[in-house]
Design goal:
Number of strands: 21
Number of domains: 3
CATH class of the largest domain: Alpha Beta
Keywords: FAD, Flavoprotein, NAD, Nucleotide-binding, Oxidoreductase
Radius of gyration: 24 Å
Number of helices: 16
Largest sheet: 7 strands, mixed
Shape: globular
CATH topology of the largest domain: FAD/NAD(P)-binding domain
Distance between the termini: 75 Å
Structural class: alpha/beta
Cofactor: FAD
Strand content: 15-25%
CATH superfamily of the largest domain: FAD/NAD(P)-binding domain
Enzyme class: oxidoreductase
GO molecular function, one term: dihydrolipoyl dehydrogenase (NADH) activity
Protein name: Dihydrolipoamide dehydrogenase
């Protein structure tokens, strides 16, 4: 080791996606010298292969679907301009160029080290650079692992030769496949089936279970399945892929029920795995390839010394970009406090506690219709033995919803703690419901009593009037007991 290839910082961050960027921003703002290590594009999965490009593909599809249901709008049923949609997607992914993100790091005062970073013992990171050298980074206070997750592929024979799509290929493809097989029932499967069916592909979706979006309220998956079928997609439940092979320009698929399919491409949207397989975890006593378990300060619990942190997908607490950024802000504050000797505030909802990961995780699924969810589901309440009152309301009875579509199909559900009289879960399905979610998140995170929510008057005619209808329905349910 020579002096010129060894550098010392207060903080070393591995991974320059939104999570790593937020950790680095907070520690730099606190006066700690920080370097961030990235082997691919600065900006990470969200910017180039997930959130930004996927929503760019979905927004035209959802808008066309909604416009087609508005009386008097003749263009609603017109096919999408595929080239224009893909060009918009390319712009939203910055044409897979990270110059803008690199410039942001520079202006924020964060150093960037290109290359693949691996832990090399306590507070040490070795970076294999693109030029073939090695840079050794020494952290005086903290190393933060923000490497995210990658697609988890099934154990099928000949997978390498199959060259299947994962979420990356699905969001960056340069043209719609004529026929696309989507394997999975979760968010990626539902969203990509929605997007590519609208862009002209014939989608066949294969689900192991009996419904879409199984982690959400059942009505969510039912409504999305209904719309996908109306759009022409073929949905098959209770079936898996036994084998698949690339042949010529397409893919041959054998199903567990004996059926066979041919397609141009096959997308596996069957879960996520942590990006920790080549991270040097063994040098600090951890197992390569594992998720990194943390406490609510995002300190890795299995490593002594309070120097190793994990934020974002890699800790498996909430695999969502916005939650990862939330975790990053807290982790950055924790690192700064420990570096200055300041006591931590780890009480629930405290400055240094990731309480929202346990109680108020918001998620939007950008399908037709949109799905918006935060807090407990009825299945989670049942599984954990928590007593809740469930309140349902048909969104099609809200005047604001009818302005979207006279035949509006949607549903709202609130879960209420009857003892504390606070909302602990909220779930919406229907066009335009994504914008309802933050109010629900505020109600849950703020633990706002129902008596106070009565004074939050929703404007008429908007979909947000459903809040009043849920309260009225709950009042009437209670009165009938």
């Amino acid at each position: 080791m020579t002096a010129e290839d060894t550098r010392s910082y207060d903080v070393v961050v591995i991974g320059a996606g939104p999570v790593g960027e937020n950790v680095a921003d907070r520690t730099t703002a606190a006066g700690l010298s920080t370097v961030i290590v990235e082997s691919e594009l600065v900006g990470g999965e969200c910017s180039y292969w997930a959130c930004e490009p996927s929503k760019a593909l979905l927004r035209p599809a959802l808008l066309r679907a909604e416009v087609a249901r508005v009386p008097g709008v003749q263009a609603g049923g017109a096919p999408l301009d595929v080239d224009a949609v893909l060009a918009h997607r390319d712009r939203m992914a910055a044409h897979w160029d990270d110059d803008g993100q690199v410039e942001w790091l520079r202006t924020a005062g964060v150093d960037l080290q290109r290359g693949h970073g691996r832990l090399d013992g306590p507070r040490r990171v070795a970076v294999s650079t693109p030029g073939g050298g090695t840079v050794h980074l020494l952290a005086r206070h903290a190393v933060a692992v923000c490497t995210g997750s990658t697609a988890a592929l099934p154990a099928l024979p000949g997978l390498a030769g199959l060259r299947p799509w994962t979420s990356r290929e699905a969001t960056s493809a340069t043209k719609p496949p004529g026929r696309l097989v989507v394997v999975g029932a979760g968010v990626v499967a539902a969203e990509m089936a929605t997007a590519w069916q609208a862009l002209g592909s014939q989608v066949v979706l294969l689900a192991r279970g009996n419904r879409l979006l199984p982690q959400l309220e059942p009505f969510a998956g039912e409504l999305v399945a209904e719309r996908l079928r109306e759009a022409g997609a073929d949905l098959r439940f209770g079936v898996t892929v036994s084998s698949a092979v690339r042949m010529g320009g397409g893919v041959g698929v054998l199903l567990s029920d004996g059926g066979r399919l041919t397609a141009d491409e096959i997308l596996f949207a069957t879960g996520r795995a942590p990006r920790t397989g080549d991270l040097g975890l063994e040098t600090v006593g951890l197992a390569p390839g594992d998720w990194l378990t943390t406490d609510d300060t995002f300190t890795v619990t299995a490593v002594q010394g309070d120097w190793l942190y994990a934020a974002g997908d890699v800790n498996r607490r909430a695999l969502l970009t916005h939650q990862g950024k939330y975790q990053a802000r807290i982790a950055g504050a924790v690192i700064a406090a420990r570096a200055s000797g300041t006591p931590l505030d780890t009480a629930p909802w405290g400055t240094h506690a990731g309480t929202a990961d346990l109680a108020a995780v918001p998620q939007v699924v950008f399908t037709d219709p949109e799905i918006a969810s935060v807090g407990l589901t009825t299945a989670e309440a049942r599984r954990t033995g928590r007593h809740v009152d469930v309140v349902d309301y048909d969104l099609g009875h809200v005047a604001g919803a009818l302005q979207h579509d006279p035949g509006y199909r949607g549903r709202a559900r609130a879960l209420i703690d009857p003892d504390r009289r606070t909302v602990v879960g909220c779930h919406f399905a229907g066009p335009g419901v994504a914008e309802l979610l933050h109010s629900a998140t505020v109600a849950i995170a703020g633990e706002i009593p129902l008596e106070r929510l009565w004074h939050a008057v929703p404007p008429f005619p908007t979909i947000s009037e459903v809040w009043l209808r849920l309260l009225e329905t709950y009042r009437d349910q209670r009165a009938a007991l």
